[in-house]
Amino acid sequence: MQKGPLIILGSARKESDTRKVVDKIFHGVDHTLIDLLDHTLAGYDYSHIYSEKDRYQQMVDEMLLHQTIVFATPVYWYSMSALMKTFFDRFSDLVTYKKSIGRQLKGKSTLLVAVGAEEYLPDGYEMPFKATSDYLDMDYLGHLYHCTKTDIPNPQLIDAFLKKILDK
To answer: How far apart are CA 119 and CA 15, in angstroms?
Structure first.
């Protein structure tokens, strides 16, 4: 089991505000980053037939190595990014034909880093993260939200967020 958290980044551009916030939060903290832009990720297929280029299973294998998983995504139209939504849709594989793998996520901790232009995180935004964690018997520990109209999150918010992760 890896010591540091796994961050799954679902932004549509490499040098995004979300990436900058993730870099600020986890500067000096042992962690692993999966940038979904760097991997081929097919949409969920009810027949479970995926291209050899699909890397979802490798991402799942990485999740199994970490106790804490942080989902980092911009707020796009009051919801997670399309990349992150595709990633979440693929959890369906882990509750259907790969149940034995999905069950191995039980007991892991999850958190959310969200970045958007509004002052507050939209109502209901966290629901897919909380509900998915609950469904897979993972422990959702909360979120850190950053509004791009302000400076990078203040140190007190970052410290409180990291405390949730590092105390696990």
So the answer is: 22
Residue 64 and residue 90: Cα distance in Å, rounded?
Answer: 15
Phi, psi of 8 (to 5 degrees): -110, 110
Instruction: Yes or no: say if 71 and 63 are a contact pair by the CB < 8 Å rule.
Output: no
Distance of alpha carbon 16 from alpha carbon 14, whole angstroms: 6
Cβ atoms < 10 Å from Cβ of 141: 17
Burial of 48 (0-12, 13-18, 19+ CB in 10 A): exposed
| Residue for token pair 């940038």 | 35
Per-residue pLDDT tens over the stretch 108-135: 999 999 999 999 999 999 999 999 999 9
Angle ∠(82,41,166) on CA atoms, nearest 5: 75
Q: Which CATH class is domain 6-166?
A: alpha beta
In this prediction the pTM is: 0.96
Cα distance between residue 145 and residue 121, in whole Å:
7
Number of Cβ atoms within 10 Å of the Cβ of 118: 12
Euclidean distance between CA atoms 14 and 12, whole angstroms = 7
